[in-house]
Amino acid sequence: KENEDILLQRYDISKVETAARVVYYHRVLRSFWFRDYETVLNCSKKYDQYNKTKELLRSVDIWMVLFFGIACFVVSRKDNNIRLMSDGEQQLTTMQKWEHACKWNFENKALLLQAEFYYARKEHEQAKACYERSIASAKQHNFLHEEALANEMFGIFCVETGDSARA
User: Which pTM was predicted?
Assistant: First the structure.
């Protein structure tokens, strides 16, 4: 946290956006893995303020779309927040666009966002099918960490919908 604050102070002096972007990306990453979805939402918006080069697609931008989208759906599911649901749908649309361009890299991520979308809408059978397809796609394309994430999200879904045996 102290080093991040130093980077943000340097940004205030230098106006080099990369420093601020790095800080907020790491805050999103850390918050996502600890399931602090409110912080993910807040830091994602701050990251986006410093992301002026939207025509470039960096790997961190892909993760930001995925993490922000998941956080939108999780929080909207718990709070019935229509605005966040809409924000999540925008992230899903972006990921589906990328999936259309490169199925290998984006299919499992788009399916995971689709699963969270269905879960937020209480369409549990569709959600379950998308979680399973996301897991299978990640496994098929050798994205072990993304397979683990999809399994974790599916496990949470199963517990929260009363299927603890499957979880």
Answer: 0.90
